[in-house]
Design a protein that fits this description.
Low-confidence stretches: none
Radius of gyration: 14 Å
Order of helices and strands: HEEEHHHH
Shape: elongated
Mean pLDDT: 93
Largest sheet: 3 strands, antiparallel
Number of domains: 1
CATH topology: Sufe protein. Chain: A
Strand content: 15-25%
Structural class: alpha+beta
Distance between the termini: 60 Å
CATH class: Alpha Beta
Strand order of the largest sheet: 1-2-3
Bound molecules: FE2/S2 (inorganic) cluster
Number of strands: 3
Helix content: 40-55%
Number of helices: 5
CATH architecture: Alpha-Beta Complex
Length: 130
């Protein structure tokens, strides 16, 4: 039988990291893929342009669960410029790759993180005195 998913993908499916919601989140974003109907909700606590905490909830396929989970690990503790640089390819690489037809699942995680940074920059960051 050909393996569809890597061992790392299965590890994240069985034991997703940072699942749940964050009571003290200052950014909440949702991203979805209209073609499959899957959706992810990210909760972030961003302070001084650093991701201090991040959690997610999801309704999605195995690849969506694994990539959303891996994306929280890639974003945790990182500066916002670095988070903006996270691509679907980088997230997939952190899982030792994904089948081509499942790359759109990692794109959901990347676009949600980018939207979170944009939301923070447009709202929370803008509230600070200059
Ligand atoms: Fe079935 Fe995403 S809708 S796996
Ligand atoms: Fe929809 Fe994976 S099939 S995100």
């Amino acid at each position: 039988m050909t393996e569809i998913y890597s061992a790392k993908v299965w590890d994240h499916v069985r034991n997703p990291r940072n699942v749940g919601s964050l009571e003290d989140a200052n950014v909440v974003v949702q991203a979805g893929d209209p073609t499959c109907g899957d959706a992810v909700l990210y909760f972030l606590r961003i302070e001084e342009d650093i991701v201090r905490d991040i959690k997610f909830l999801i309704k999605g396929c195995g690849a969506a669960i694994a990539t959303s989970s891996a994306a929280t690990e890639l974003a945790m503790g990182k500066g916002l410029d670095e988070v903006m640089g996270l691509t679907d390819q980088i997230i997939a690489q952190a899982l030792d790759g994904l089948p081509e037809e499942k790359m759109h699942c990692s794109n959901m995680a990347a676009s949600a993180l980018h939207a979170a940074v944009e939301q923070y920059r447009a709202t929370v960051a803008g509230e600070k005195p200059r």
